[in-house]
Amino acid sequence: MTRLTLILSGLLVALFVTALLIGPAHISPGPSLRALIMGGEGPMTLVMREIRLPRALLGLLIGGALGLAGAAMQGYLRNPLADPGLIGVSGSAALGAVLAIQTGFATTWSLGLPMAALSGAVLGVCAVLLLAGPRGSSLSLILAGIAISALAGALTALVLNLSPNPFAANEIVFWMMGSLSDRSMTHVWIALPFILLGSALLASLSRGLDALTLGEDAAEAMGIGLRRMRLTLIFGTAAVVGASTAVAGAIGFVGLVVPHLLRPFVGARPGRLLLASTLGGAAMLLAADIVVRAILPDRDLKLGVVTALIGAPLFLHLIYRTRQDAT
Amino acid sequence: MLPAGVLPMSASMHASSLWIPWLVAALTAAPALADAPRRVVSMNLCTDQLAMLVAGEGQLISVSALSADPRGSAMADVAARYPLNHGRAEEIYLMQPDLVIAGTFTRRATVDMLDRLGIPVLLLEPAYTLDDIAALLIQTGKALGQEAKAESLVADFQTRLGLLNSKDAANPRAALYSANGYTSGDRTLAGEILSAAGLDNVAAEAGLADGGFLPLEVLVMAAPDTVITGVPYAGESRAEAVTDHPVIAALRDGRPGARMMDRDWVCGTPFVLQAINAMADLRHTLQDGQR
């Protein structure tokens, strides 16, 4: 275990505990943690086990998933701008999820919601890879992402506006910005298997991504199957992003910011960046979810607001640097 | 004259058998006075129901489309017999009304335009208390030249309300919980419905006298004896899904919960008696369970 892993793990534990201790109900840390672990009768156990625990667990899982997916895509495309949110994968996953919910498919089959989001995400990843090409320039990658995000966002808004439910149209902002409020253990069980499976697929790319830094020919000479890597990346990313989006909406910029910040600490080796970004992504999302609850305890400030406030300036910085490199 | 069959099913189910003769008597009262408006159009769900109760035969020529939807309207069957409007200035102008009744929350631009076109508009405040209901009936009666009918409706409403009023020393504690975690406090019509039925409102304990967003955690910590949730609309929404959260089921845990039927809760009309009746039933069930 490297020092970076240790530091990130420590940070993660601290943030996880903080996330469990913060919320609109004013209960003191000692009794609430006791209620969480020991259980027992009473409302405090319900608050801790059924409201705060699933929220913190989802922050951990989804943040980790988005960090990992960002690192894997950036490594594979060798492009620091690849983030599942920016290139439209989250948006297409949200469209899949909204379609499943509004058509009732999500209630007829317990795996309906995550499977539909996953299908949306697969279409999104494939479309981006097709449009941007295997070694696409930053420009074509971002343009493809904007087009796919816009299309998926418009269709999501259309489906929600067509819903007979008067509340549905207001939820466009949830699907585009994401939130962890009022989630339950049901949502954890929906997302968990897909995130674990997808993460395992993405983690298996570690050696291949390191080899790819030497170029595709060198990687193939080292026995890396590029076609297989590509498929693994598509389904791994779709599984983690799809499951995350299905339960928490599209949360942007985690997959952009975290790999960028951590890259210098892993000697720019994309394989090692995978684990670091998973831990870092989880820490960033937990922190963001603590911030939204600290700013507006009683209201549902969307997570995407905070992640974008951190991520968008960095995105601008990256674009600026990309332009400098080009000249 | 409207036959007794026009009453919604729930009226005969919830209320006592005295209900139907009372309403029919009210609906067959005297025709409008000579100088009263003859072509009245109502464009708000709640003013529609007040107007339908109070207006003389042929006096009311159109109500809003929302009133024909049994989900939100206690008089959907009656409303379906009227031409329906959608609250647009153009269609209402073409009906050539001599009085338009709207709510104070009806789209301002539409009301202003009707005003500019020289059509008298009566704006009715929404009811915030049970007492407001009598005032609204009287106000509508005056505007329509049906004072006597309005007064008999008020008298009957108050008699019935008096019969329902029954308070115990120890009221069960109830929480109203609708879409997005919205709750209604004591200073709202829904809050008064609860207290008239002998239930205490946990929103007051949480400092939400006017109502507002009650976080799920705060609801759980308040540990109410019963949770009364809204009835979801067709289609799905995250806003309403919060009432299906496992902690709501855990809070209820074998004790009876209840649903708020929008049609009996939303508008300040005598139909709130149905909501009070349902809540009083809930209170009895809760108290029987405790014994």
UniProtKB/TrEMBL annotation, chain A:
Example GO BP: siderophore-iron import into cell
Chain ranges passing through the membrane: 51-73, 85-105, 111-132, 139-160, 186-205, 231-254, 274-296, 303-320
UniProt xrefs under Pfam families: FecCD (PF01032)
Record GO terms (molecular function): transmembrane transporter activity
Membrane-protein topology: Multi-pass membrane protein
Chief location: membrane
Keywords: Cell membrane, Membrane, Transmembrane, Transmembrane helix, Transport
Alphabetical list of CDD domains matching this protein: TM_ABC_iron-siderophores_like
Record bears the keyword Transmembrane: yes
The organism's place on the tree of life at top rank: Bacteria
Cellular compartment(s): Cell membrane
Keyword NAD: no
Protein family: Belongs to the binding-protein-dependent transport system permease family. FecCD subfamily.
Name listed for the protein in its UniProt record: Iron complex transport system permease protein
TrEMBL record, chain B:
UniProt-listed SUPFAM superfamilies: Helical backbone' metal receptor
Domain Fe/B12 periplasmic-binding: 39-290
GO biological process, one term: cellular response to iron ion
Organism domain of life: Bacteria
InterPro entries: ABC_Transporter_SBP (IPR050902), ABC_transptr_periplasmic_BD (IPR002491)
PANTHER family per the UniProt record, alphabetical: MOLYBDATE-BINDING PROTEIN MOLA, VITAMIN B12-BINDING PROTEIN
Protein name: Iron complex transport system substrate-binding protein
Species whose genome carries this gene: Loktanella atrilutea
